[in-house]
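tool_call: predict_structure(chain=1)
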Amino acid sequence: MVHELFVAAFLCVSGFVSAGILSSFYQLVTGEPPKFRVPFDNALKATLSMIFVLMIGPFLLMRSGLQLYRVEGRPFGWLMASAVLSCLWSVQTGLFIVYVALVL
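tool_result:
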C-alpha cells in the first residue's frame, strides 16, 4: 500500500513539474501567461492547443486557485478544492509523461 502511495506522489510531482516547465516555456516564448483559452481558427491549431492545455492544466488550475484566494478573498475551501483537483490532474499528466519517457 505504501509503495502505491509513493508511486502516486511521484506521478503527481512529475506531472506538476512538467506542467510548470511547459507553462514557463510558453510564457518565455510568447511573453504572456498561458490561459485556458483554446482558439478554434482551424482544426490543427485547436487540437494542438487542446493538448497543450491538457498538459499544463494542473499549473493553471493551481495558479487560478491561489489568485482567487489572495486577490478576491475566496474561502480557504476554494483553495483546497483547487489543490485537490490540481493534484489529481497532475497524477494523470505525470502518468502520461512517465509512460512516454519509458517508451522512448
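agent: The radius of gyration is 15 Å. Proceeding to next step.
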